[in-house]
Specification:
Layout (H helix, E strand, L loop, with lengths): L11 H21 L1 H26 L4 H33 L4 H33 L35 H31 L1 H13 L3 H40 L4 H11 L6 H16 L4 H25 L8 H15 L1 H5 L1 H14 L4 H7 L7 H10 L3 H12 L4 H22 L4 H18 L5 H7 L9 H13 L13 E6 L3 H16 L3 E6 H9 L10 E8 L6 H14 L4 E6 L19 E3 L2 H11 L1 H13 L1
Parallel strand pairs: 1-2, 1-3, 3-4, 4-5
C-alpha cells in the first residue's frame, strides 16, 4: 500500500486565487454599492409579499396595471398610517417624560441607597472596627492650601453671552427636511422599483432564468421555485407571528396600565424581525419606561413577566407548530448572518439578514459551485448518519455514536438502525480498507467502537460483562467473529443447550466474509432480543456439527435457517453451496435467503434465484418481521418484558 497522497492538479492554487478575488470583489461591490443595492433588494423582497395580492386582484377581473397600483397604494397607506401612528405615540411619550422626572429621581435614589449606600455603610463600619483595634489608624492629613489660594481673589472676567436670535421658520423646515430626506429618498426609490418589478414580474423571472440557467431550464426553475417557496413561507409565517406578538404585547401592556401601549406593541412587532435580540431590546426599553411611570416596582415586574411569557409561548410552542424550520438555516448561520449584514448595510441589513442568507443557501443547494454556502449555512447535516458513525469510529468515539443511536432508537427499531446506519458505515470502512486508505490503528479503533456500540445496545448483554470484555476484543479476527466469540464465552460453543423444545431454534449462517459475519451477528442479536433462540454459525461450523454425533441434541430442534450474503454477485457460488448443505442436513427447516444490497452501488442488483429457498428478504428489519410472524409467542413475551421494564 502506498502512503503517498494523491497529487493535486496544478490549477488548484489558481482556482483558489480566483475564488478569493471574486469573493473580495463581491464584498467590495456590496459595501460600496449599498446606497443603490439596498433599495433594490428591499423592493425585490416587497415584491414577493405583494405578488400574491396582485394575482388575487387579477383573478377578480382587474387588469395587471390596475392590480399593481391598488396593491402598492394599499401598501403605502398601511406603512404611512403605521409610521404616523408611531410618530404620534413617540411625540406623546416625549411630552409626558417631564412629569415622570420625580419618579425617576426617587427610584434612582432608592437604587443608590440599596447598592452604593449599603457599601458606604459597610465601609464605615469596617473603618470603625479598624480604628478601635488600632491597626489601621492613620494620622490626620494636614490640608495645605495651594500658594495661589493665598493671594488676593482674582477679579472675575466679564463673559460675553451671545445674543439669541429667533429661529426663522425656514431654518426649522430646512433642518427637518435635511433630517428626513435620506429615508424619504430611500422610500421613494423602493416604491418606484417595486412598481416596475410588479409590472414586469413574469418578464424579469424569464430573463433571470435565461441569464442564470442557460440551457438547463429545469435546474434554474427548480432553484427559483425553491427560493420563492421558502421566502414566501418565511415572510408569511414571520409576519403573522410578529403581528400576533405585537397585538398580544399591546393588549397586555394596556391591561397592566403601561402608557402608550400601542407604540410598544408596534415596536415589538417591527423589531422582532431582528433575529433573537430585537424583541429583548424593546423589552428593555419598555421595562425602563414602566419603571419610570409608576412609583412602585410592580409595573416593571409585570412588564418583564409579560414579555417572558409571550416570547416563551411563541418561540417554544407556536412557531414550531406553525412552520418549524421553514428557512432551512442553522441557528448559528442566522446569528452570523445578522452580524455580517448589519456590518455591511447597517440596520436595514440587520432586518434583511435572514432572507438574504436564505437566498444564498438556496443558491448553494442548486448550484454546484456554491455548494459551500449550503454546507456552512444550511440546517441539513453535513454528513449522513453512516458517515458520522464511520468518522467517529475512526476516532474511537463510541460515546457519541451511542448518543445518536439512542436518539434513533426512540423512533425506530434496532434492526432499522442496523440496516440504515451500521451496515452502510461498515461498507464505507470496507471501501477505505480495499483502497488502503486507513491504517492498522484506525482499523482497530473502528472495530473497538463498533463492538462497544453493538454490545451496549444489546439488551441481553450485562453491563458487567461488557466492562470485563472491553479490553479483550480479539484483534486478529473480524468484528462479527469478535461479537460472536463473546456469546460463545458465556453460553458455550453452540451458544446454548442442544436439548431444547422442538422447532425452537433459528440458525443464522454467515458465508465467512467480514461483512457477512457482522450482518449475521447483528441478525442473531436482533432475533434474540425478540426472545427467539437464534444462534450464529458459519458454514464450516454447521458442516462440523452435522458430521459430529450429538446424542443430546433434539433431532428436529431447528425451525428456520437464515443464510446471509452481503455481496450476492461475488458470493453466489458460496451461497448456493450453503443452501445445498443446509437442505441436506435439515430438510424440514424453512430456508430464508438474506441478501443485502450494496449501499453505494450505482444500480440495484437483483438477488440470485435459488429453488431451495422458501423465502427471500433484503434487510434485517424484513428478516425480523418474518421471524415474528413465525414465532408470535416470542413477540408476545418481548412485549410483556418491555412492559414490565
Amino acid at each position: 500500500m502506498s502512503s503517498q497522497a494523491p497529487t493535486l492538479p496544478a490549477v488548484t492554487a489558481s482556482q483558489r486565487a480566483v475564488v478569493i478575488i471574486a469573493a473580495a470583489s463581491v464584498l467590495a461591490l456590496l459595501y460600496f454599492g449599498r446606497e443603490v443595492l439596498v433599495p433594490i433588494i428591499l423592493a425585490l423582497f416587497l415584491s414577493l409579499l405583494m405578488a400574491p395580492w396582485v394575482r388575487l386582484y387579477r383573478r377578480i377581473g382587474l387588469g395587471h396595471g390596475m392590480s399593481v397600483m391598488i396593491a402598492v397604494l394599499a401598501l403605502v397607506v398601511i406603512v404611512t398610517g403605521t409610521t404616523a401612528m408611531m410618530g404620534t405615540q413617540v411625540v406623546h411619550v416625549a411630552r409626558s417624560l417631564p412629569q415622570y422626572e420625580a419618579t425617576i429621581h426617587t427610584k434612582v435614589q432608592s437604587l443608590r441607597e440599596q447598592t452604593l449606600g449599603r457599601l458606604d455603610i459597610l465601609s464605615g463600619e469596617l473603618g470603625k472596627v479598624i480604628d478601635e483595634t488600632g491597626q489601621g489608624a492613620a494620622p490626620a492629613a494636614t490640608v495645605v492650601a495651594p500658594p495661589y489660594l493665598t493671594n488676593a481673589p482674582a477679579t472675575p472676567k466679564p463673559v460675553s453671552t451671545p445674543t439669541k436670535l429667533p429661529s426663522a421658520p425656514v431654518t426649522v423646515i430646512t433642518r427637518v427636511l435635511s433630517t428626513a430626506w435620506v429615508p424619504v429618498e430611500t422610500a421613494g426609490i423602493v416604491l418606484v422599483v417595486l412598481i416596475f418589478v410588479l409590472l414586469e414580474h413574469e418578464a424579469l423571472r424569464d430573463r433571470f432564468i435565461r441569464l442564470a440557467g442557460g440551457s438547463d431550464l429545469r435546474a434554474t426553475t427548480a432553484a427559483i421555485n425553491d427560493a420563492g417557496e421558502r421566502l414566501s413561507r418565511f415572510f408569511i409565517s414571520t409576519f403573522s407571528v410578529n403581528f400576533g406578538v405585537g397585538v398580544a404585547i399591546w393588549l397586555g401592556l394596556f391591561l397592566i396600565g403601561v402608557p402608550s401601549a400601542l407604540l410598544w406593541g408596534l415596536l415589538t412587532a417591527v423589531l422582532r424581525f431582528v433575529p433573537y435580540i430585537g424583541v429583548w431590546l424593546v423589552a428593555a426599553v419598555v421595562s425602563l419606561f414602566a419603571a419610570a411611570v409608576a412609583p412602585g416596582w410592580s409595573l416593571l415586574l409585570m412588564t418583564v413577566a409579560l414579555y417572558l411569557v409571550v416570547e416563551i409561548i411563541v418561540s417554544q410552542l407556536i412557531e414550531p407548530f406553525l412552520y418549524g424550520h421553514t428557512t432551512g438555516l442553522s441557528p448559528l448561520a442566522v446569528v452570523v448572518a445578522a452580524i455580517f449584514w448589519s456590518w455591511l448595510w447597517g440596520p436595514v441589513g440587520l432586518l434583511m439578514s435572514t432572507p438574504l442568507t436564505l437566498c444564498l443557501v438556496v443558491a448553494g443547494r442548486h448550484v454546484q459551485a456554491l455548494n459551500l454556502l449550503n454546507i456552512l449555512l444550511g440546517d441539513t447535516p453535513a454528513l449522513t448518519m453512516p458517515q458520522r458513525v464511520y468518522q467517529r469510529a475512526l476516532s474511537g468515539d463510541a460515546s457519541e455514536i451511542l448518543s445518536e443511536a439512542r436518539e434513533f432508537l426512540k423512533r425506530k427499531s434496532f434492526a432499522a438502525y442496523c440496516d440504515s446506519v451500521l451496515l452502510p458505515a461498515l461498507q464505507l470502512a470496507r471501501i477505505d480498507l480495499a483502497a488502503g486508505a486507513i491504517s492498522t490503528e484506525q482499523q482497530t479503533a473502528v472495530k473497538r467502537a463498533i463492538v462497544t456500540v453493538v454490545e451496549t445496545l444489546d439488551s441481553h448483554e450485562s453491563k458487567w460483562a461488557r466492562w470485563r470484555r472491553r479490553s479483550s476484543v480479539l484483534e486478529s479476527v473480524s468484528i462479527g467473529r469478535s461479537l460472536r466469540q463473546h456469546r460463545e464465552d458465556a453460553f458455550g460453543r453452540w451458544q446454548g443447550p442442544l436439548a431444547v423444545a422442538p422447532r425452537s431454534v433459528v440458525l443464522c449462517l454467515g458465508l465467512g466474509s467480514v461483512a457477512s459475519d457482522f450482518a449475521t451477528e447483528l441478525l442473531t442479536r436482533i432475533l434474540r432480543d425478540l426472545n427467539i433462540d437464534a444462534r450464529h454459525l458459519s458454514v464450516e461450523d454447521f458442516a462440523a456439527f452435522d458430521a459430529e454425533p450429538h446424542p443430546e441434541a433434539t433431532p428436529n430442534a431447528v425451525s428456520m435457517v437464515y443464510i446471509v450474503s452481503t455481496h450476492p454477485t461475488k458470493e453466489r457460488e458460496s451461497f448456493d453451496e450453503a443452501v445445498a448443505l443446509t437442505r441436506r442436513g435439515i430438510p424440514e427447516a424453512c430456508l430464508v435467503g438474506v441478501f443485502f444490497p450494496e449501499p453505494l452501488a450505482a444500480t440495484e442488483v437483483e438477488p440470485p434465484v435459488n429453488a431451495e429457498l422458501n423465502e427471500v428478504v433484503t434487510s434485517l428489519e424484513q428478516a425480523a418481521q418474518q421471524a415474528i410472524a413465525r414465532f408470535p409467542e416470542g413477540g408476545v413475551e418481548r412485549e410483556q418484558r418491555s412492559a414490565t421494564i
